[in-house]
Amino acid sequence: MTARRGPGEAGFSLVELLVATLVLVVCLTGVALMILYGTRLGATAREATATTALAKAQVERLRVLPRVAPQRRLGGSLGANLADHFERQGRYTTRWEIATGPAGTQTLTVVVIAGSAHGPSARLGVLLR
Predict the structure, then answer these.
(1) In order along the chain (129 residues), what is the average pLDDT of each group of 10 residues?
(2) How many CB atoms lie within 10 A of CB 55?
(3) Max intra-chain CA distance, the chain
(4) In this structure, are strands 106-113 and 92-100 parallel, antiparallel, or unpaired?
């Protein structure tokens, strides 16, 4: 004998199953996009940290040099690679500009640019004695 089901006990219809599948696909797509965005954001943050650390290191290297060193001479450019005022370290380019500052000091501005055109860059300015 087979048991008969009443009208309220029929189970899921094909339309309900398709709607549930569509909701699940939309939710999973949203989660996948959030993971992708988080990964990109993490990579950008690591790149920004690296460029800032390189800028700080370059400031310290230049700070300990005597004023007569070629790298400490007045001049330089933040937009072009000029002799004695830029370095390449892997995929990073570091440029600096030195100008006369107040009371016998020098103003030093260092820019570190990541290899990609859209990557983050760091800019740091200090006074040197």
Answers:
(1) 61 89 97 97 92 95 93 92 92 94 93 79 92
(2) 22
(3) 105
(4) antiparallel
